[in-house]
Amino acid sequence: MTALPPSIVDAAKLLRARKTSSLELTEAALSRAHADRFNTWLLLADDHARAQAKVADERLNRGDAPLLCGIPWACKDIIGTKGIETTAASRILKGYVPPYSATVVERLDAEGAVMVGKTNLDEFAMGSSNENSAFGPVKNPWCVERVPGGSSGGSAVAVAADEVLFALGTDTGGSIRQPAALSGVAGMKPTYGRVSRYGVVAFASSLDQVGPFTHTVEDAAIVCEALFGKDPHDATTMPLAREDLRRDLAKGVKGLRIGVPKEFFIEGMEPGVEKAVRDALRELERQGANIVEVSLSLTDHGLAVYYIIQPAEASSNLARYDGVRYGLRAEGPDLLETYRRTRGQGFGAEVKRRMILGTYALSAGYYDAYYVKAQKVRTLIKAEFDAAFAKCDAIVTPTSPTVAFKIGQKVNDPLAMYLNDVFTLPGNIAGLPGISIPCGLSEGLPVGLQIMANSFAEATMFRVAAAYERATPHQARPERKAA
């Protein structure tokens, strides 16, 4: 087998019908991954994957295997993996091998899923294009001259290029949904507190969440069912009962209220993106949804709030990389010079930029003027979403104002780069769940449709996304070639 099945659901059926084995799926995934042309992978764990596949096949043969058993997947290299190098795409962590796995990895291990390797990303997840990796940019399989989106670009491409059946990414301001949109796959960010962050390299702790990339909405729900749940190692996780997230997938949207915020259709949005999204809204209306206008007037302030809170938390979290305990150490004549040399050599330009911004925002004389004020506006943004959800069941918007742009096009303009996340970061500020699914092409490149729901209402979000997915042919993929 040189090609993978089109979805987790299809692969699971083949495995249970004994028409393939986990080892065969894994060999197909490894073959495709080793032939990768997009700089998707930072590490391929061949022996680890084959060992997990053999155990999965034994479990499948016993007939008591969970749905994800035997399914090959990819792990963003900011998520800790026991005994397997985890670098966060930074030279400062090159060679670091965690002594334990992140909770999300342990939960997928318990399901019998097979981890193929670790994917490329923007360094410490800081970026919107996957050009900030210390190990080179990831290329978009739709057009190798263009970015795949970031920071989880490698995970998005691993799925888009059919090298695995699902992947995990992290989303701090759009780092799952934005690359999903630009790479033409589904990418989902859960409600803050749904998924454990234990063992994930911390970026901005009040914003970070782990979520899946998949080809279908149902597949995303399946992965989330495995990931969701309280973790005693992460005090921010909520003690909610295990939930059937697929229960409403077939119900359709008739009678549901779909909110459309006028502030999300902005000047500068590419015409092809706006047309695809408005066509999607008309399709949902045709299916019986009630389209209602809602106002999220503080959207304009979201970018400023995000780029105060996020760098501030990053400057605190990244202070631990000092050359003393693990990772790179650049020896100096004294401790302070060792710190300077280690961080100077270990961190890339974007990481340094955000650490400086965050340290400034937290410094004496500026803390109240910037950080405290940003937190107050964050509360107002959340209240505005609460008011909107009093009028609707889900909110539908563009995921990104543009399709994938050319590699290097925005690398010297940080503000233009930051604006790529203008539609996704409000969801992180408010802690809400969101998914991006394909809604057509513009100039031959994928456009993403973002669907957000109220806190812990992922089942409603999946219901709307599945209804649109069923009714439309937007499952186009880059040209598939056998590895």
Short account of what is shown:
The chain has a domain at 8-250: Alpha-Beta Complex (Amidase signature (AS) enzymes). Helix content is 38%, strand content 13%.
- The residue-averaged pLDDT reads 95
β-strand percent reads: 5-15%
C-alpha termini separation: 10 Å
Q: Give a quick account of the main beta sheet: strands, pairing sense, barrel closure.
A: 11 strands, mixed
Determine the fraction of residues in helical runs and give it as a percent range. Answer: 25-40%
CATH architecture of the domain at 8-250: Alpha-Beta Complex
Number of strands: 11
User: Which segments are poorly predicted (pLDDT under 50) over 5 or more consecutive residues?
Assistant: none
> What oligomerization state is this entry in?
single chain
In CATH, what is the class of the domain at 8-250? Alpha Beta
What this model shows, in words?
The protein is globular and about 65 Å long. Strands 1-3-2-4-6-5-10-11-9-7-8 form an 11-stranded mixed beta sheet, with helices on both faces. The termini are close together. The chain has helices at residues 8-16, 22-34, 46-62, 103-111, 153-160, 177-183, 217-227, 271-286, 299-317, 335-346, 349-362, 367-389, 414-418, 425-430, 458-471; strands spanning 41-44, 72-76, 114-119, 166-171, 186-189, 209-214, 257-261, 290-294, 394-398, 434-442, 445-452. The relative contact order is 0.14. By secondary structure, it is an alpha/beta fold. It has a domain at 8-250: Amidase signature (AS) domain (Amidase signature (AS) enzymes, Alpha-Beta Complex), CATH 3.90.1300. α9 packs across α11 and α9 (299-317) packs across α12. The model has no long low-confidence stretch (mean pLDDT 95).
